[in-house]
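User: Here's a chain of 51 residues. Predict its fold as tokens.
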Amino acid sequence: MDKHKKQRLIDYINTHHADFVYRYLAGPLRFQRRQSKRYNKLLRFFGLLKD
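Assistant: Prediction complete.
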């Protein structure tokens, strides 16, 4: 999958399935998907990610 197609897919998932993504990842799905949950928790800890 090329990087532009992957980014469009991630954007689609974040907009159309926001409840699911925020519930399981504590924030939006990231380009480096494996790190999404950790990165979101870290941003939330420092107050850089709002609910």
